[in-house]
Amino acid sequence: MTTPEPLRIESAAALATLIDHTLLKPEATPADVNVLIAEALELGVFSVCVSPSLLPVEIPAGSGLRVATVCGFPSGTHAASIKAGEAALSVQNGADEVDMVIDLGEVKAGRFDRVEQGIRAVRDAVPAPALVKVIIESAALTDAEIVAACHAAESAGADFVKTSTGFHPAGGATVHAVQLMADTVGGRLGVKASGGIRSLAQALEMVSAGATRLGLSSSASILTEWDTPSVRTESGPIGY
C-alpha cells in the first residue's frame, strides 16, 4: 500500500484550488447561490457545491469554476435507483461533480456488496467526465468499516471518497479518518475532507493527512487567515 506525499500548499491561492465552496443549508435560496458564486470567483476556489434543487446555476463563461452537487443527501437511505436518477438529472442541469451518500445501514450490516452496487448505480448514471465522490460519513464508522467503504467506492468506479455530509451527529472530518482513507485508496482516488473544518489550521491538517479536496462553507474566513503567520506556524508548512 503506497500513499502519495501530501500536497504542498504554499499560498492562499494554492489552497483555494482545493476548495469546494459549499452551501447546503436547506433554507438556501437562488439569491444565496448567486452570492456563493460571486464569492467563489473572487476567492479562486475550485468549485461551488449546492443542493440539486438549486440547479442549474449561472457560471460566467471561461471562469473555470466547476459546479458540484449532492445526491441521497444527507441520510443516504434512498433507493439506489433514486440516487442514480437524482444524479443524472443534476448532471443534465449542469453539475460537473456529484457527491453521493452511501447507505450507512448497509455498511453497519456488513453488506458491502450492496454498498458497491449503490455506488455503481450512480457511477453508471453519470459517466465520465462527470466526477463521483462517495460520502462515507467516516465519523459514524469504525476503521475497518472506513477501509471497506473505500474499497467499495474504488471497485464501483468512484473518483473520490469523502469524509462527511456535515449533517451527521457523530461529527465531521478528522485527521485520522482522512489519513486512513488516503492510505486505503493510495492515490488512485481523491480524498475530500468535509464537515466541521472552520479554520486554516484545520484545513492544513487535512491536506497534510492526505486530503486532495476540501469541502468548506467558511472558505473566505479560512483563506483570510493565511495572512496571520502564527496560524501557519502552529499547523506547520504543508508537505514537509
UniProtKB/TrEMBL annotation:
Protein name according to UniProt: Deoxyribose-phosphate aldolase
Enzyme class: lyase
Source organism per UniProt: Klugiella xanthotipulae
Classification via InterPro entries: Aldolase_TIM, DeoC, DeoC/FbaB/LacD_aldolase, DeoC_typeI
Catalytic activity field: 2-deoxy-D-ribose 5-phosphate = D-glyceraldehyde 3-phosphate + acetaldehyde
MF annotations from Gene Ontology: deoxyribose-phosphate aldolase activity
KW Lyase (keyword) present: yes
UniProt-listed Pfam families: DeoC
Pathway in which this enzyme or protein is active: Carbohydrate degradation; 2-deoxy-D-ribose 1-phosphate degradation; D-glyceraldehyde 3-phosphate and acetaldehyde from 2-deoxy-alpha-D-ribose 1-phosphate: step 2/2
GO CC aspect terms: cytoplasm
Keyword annotations: Cytoplasm, Lyase, Schiff base
